[in-house]
Amino acid sequence: MFEYLYDQINDPNVNIIGSLYKLLLSILLGAVIGLERRHKGQIAGMRTFALITMGATLAMLVSIYIPQEYLGLKNGDPGRIAAQVISGIGFLGAGAIIQMKGSVRGLTTAASIWMAACIGLAVGSGMYVVATIACFLIIFVLLTLELCEKHLFKGNEQKIVRLKVNKIVTDASVYRQSFKKFRVHVSDEFLRYDYTLGTTTINFMVRSRDNTNFIGLFNQLHAQGDILSLTLTNEVNN
Description:
Low-confidence stretches: none
Order of helices and strands: HHHHEEHHEHEEHEE
Number of helices: 8
Distance between the termini: 47 Å
Largest sheet: 4 strands, antiparallel
Mean pLDDT: 80
């Protein structure tokens, strides 16, 4: 019995038992990746990633099944449908990326979605071991390398200081002087004008130390006058 199931699972031809095994395995691997993303507070969680990997697996099975069953068709390439998954998943990945006022979120989730689709294709083509290894490598990258990044860049973090000024700002150098006084390096800045309300929103991309006195910096900036609001955020929040 077990030998029969093993042969069905590893049969290069599409069959019911092998297809069921591949779909279940892809759900499991996708759910593992989604569990990590959900733990990080991302909207795309276990269900999303499980559906992505299962969908990619199903696309791979269809790609194999069509030339297998319809040998009379010319140019029966089993990679055609699967190839569309790689390009098509980009739309779903783009939906996970949020760009807002100089702040970017979801890049890591988008990359994970793309990898999950590739894992589904690998499972659908019968590369069970490779797909499983890839799944755990993704978890390794998401967990372990994050700790390495925090350790390597500890004390030198990238942040965004967002100012809303009650006037049209033509020269932001006066604000940069305040950053310089508190030894905060300004790497870039973005300005958005609202001529209807007569306000300016400035996003300063800065690098700061752990012991940076942001309260003192904000007081210094507020002393410049016409400041409606001050916000401190992370540049990239995955």
